[in-house]
Amino acid sequence: MTVEVKRPSRFGLFGQLWFQVLAGTVIGVLLGWLAPDIGSAMKPFGDAFIKMIRMMIGPIIFVTVVHGIAGMSDMRSVGRLALKSIIYFEVITILALIVGLVAVDLWQPGAGMNIDPATIDMASIQGYVHTAHDQSIVSYIMAIIPNTLVSAFTEAHVLQVLFVAVLFGVALAAVGERGKPVMNVIESASGVLFKIIGYVMYFAPIGAFGAIAFTVGQFGAGSLLSLGELIIEFFVVCAAFTVFVLGAVCWWTGASLWRLMGYLRDEIIIVAATTSTETVLPRLIEKMKKLGCEEGVVGFVIPAGYSFNLDGTCLYLTTVALFLAQATNTELTVWHQLGLIAVLLLTSKGAAGVAGAAFVVLAATLGTTGTIPVASIALILGIHRILAEGLTFVNLIGNAIAVLVIAKWEGKLDEKVMAAQIGTRRTRQRVLGAQPA
Asked: Can you tell me where the transmembrane regions are (predicted)?
């Protein structure tokens, strides 16, 4: 595997995508703050960019997964890869749920609010509650299987595309030489699709501008002030989980969390502006391959992680659920909280492919446990998008680290390539050891 050397832009700092997106974000914040009505009207710019990315997700996942699986010499490795991924996802998910639960129990951001659920207006959350009633374990599993081969792509369901791609990749490998012409087409299509993504990313600064201008203009500073303690607590928990839990896991792979975040700075800024990890899924696949992770691992772990490895979403769900219990003076015993974690282990897996995903899953979880009033979720409707800034960031970093972990676990991480891109703990130790006393 060759190491790609990135040439400096002709325009210096101004030619860097992260700087352009950051500039668009700052301008959007200022517009939403100074002219809220105009800022709210900028929403179509953000929506258009997200739609352009979403139209590419299905085809890119398909060609990446098919090419990766068909290129594996041993089909047993596919099953082993899936098993290791699920084990890792579940362990990290449980950690995230526990960390979120303990943190909100200690901080108590909702204590003293004394909200009476009977006085809450349900009109604003009816759509979310209705969608939540349609979520169940059986319906979620059945939804993984598309109605037709084509509908997996037209409905933009990540797990459906992954399901079809795995079947196609295994079948392509099974036919041997006869499948080579198809493999050549897949390789050519992959190059074309990633080229299109490159074109779409030119619109990222405009999309970031529109998305953040709408958020600030629509919800304003009032939402920040009224529920400020919850926002601060959640962001602190997200930062702590990233540094201590994900940082420790990243250290095990030999990589530096800070250098990895620097490597993904473009994606981090885009996710922060759009509050959607889908907007960077194609670029994340491409970057993790360039980081030294084998294509088959990247192609499987990232799409699967978008449904099963939602660390930030789990932090959000436990934090907000217990906050609402505190705000409405709902007493939760230790057994209630353990039951909440058990339910969230299942319901959190349905947070992909649903509009307002985390909010819908929250409503479904409260409805399932029956302890915390479902009506209370209206309290955080105004700040949900602000909280999404934290959860999407953690989801992004968590999925990037998951690829490194599974690749290293499978022996399919090229540490020389990773060292050339971001350096490794071992190379830094050698450098420090070589320095004169």
From this structure: 12-35, 55-73, 85-104, 156-175, 196-219, 231-255, 354-380, 386-407
Does 1 map to a domain? no
Residue with the larger pLDDT of the pair 81 and 75: 81
In a domain, 194, yes or no: yes
- Cα 376 to Cα 320: distance, rounded to the nearest angstrom: 10
Q: List Cβ<8 Å contacts ≥24 apart for 326-329.
A: 326/104, 326/108, 326/109, 326/110, 326/111, 326/113, 327/110, 327/113, 327/114, 327/115, 327/376, 327/379, 328/113, 328/115, 328/116, 328/117, 328/372, 328/373, 328/376, 329/114, 329/115
DSSP letters for 141-153: HHHTS-SSTTHHH
> Which tokens in the block code for residue 335?
């057994």
First-to-last C-alpha distance (Å) of the chain: 36
What's the sign of the alpha-carbon dihedral 326, 332, 334, 336?
negative
Answer yes or no: is 436 within a domain.
no
Give me 1's structure tokens: 């595997």
* Count of the separate structural domains present in the chain: 1
pLDDT in tens, 104-128: 989 888 787 777 766 655 554 555 4
Contact at 8 Å (CB) between 100 and 238?
no
- Pairwise pLDDT comparison (158 vs 102), residue with the higher score: 102
Cα dist from 212 to 20, 223, 234, 250, whole Å: 14, 15, 19, 30
Q: Exposure of 399 by Cβ count < 10 A (0-12 exposed, 13-18 middle, 19+ buried)?
A: buried
